[in-house]
Amino acid sequence: MEFILVIVIIAVLCIILRISTEFIIIGILAFIGLVIVTIMLMFIYFFICLLFSKKHEAYFSRIDRQNKNKFRTAYYIVDGTEYPCVFPAENIFTNTLYKKEHKYHVRLNLHMKRVFDRFAIATCIIGFLTSLVAIIFIIYMTV
Q: Where are any strands of DSSP class E within the chain?
């Protein structure tokens, strides 16, 4: 909410200072492009971490908040040690998607001390492809 308010204040100041509407629109598009590139870099980082992780069998342990975080995270037990998932847990159909005493195949990244479950893998792939398409679209629209 505060983010939108800041954008509105900046736009109003630009109008008061008689900056042309074209420059305001170009600035907004450049900012959106910067945000998309930043998100894509985040997904590239997680995708590289995923590539350097090793496949393990794991058992789902629990869903809990990690370090007073506002998002709930799934925990898996790999070789007797509990690891959190990289991304927050799915909120819809939690009991159906995460079953205790069920064997899952996860990718363990020991450097991060986190696992990539099937939902995290899908998030990495879909997020990277979506941000790539968005960047191509923005480049196409500005040319």
A: 54-65, 72-78, 81-84, 103-109, 114-116
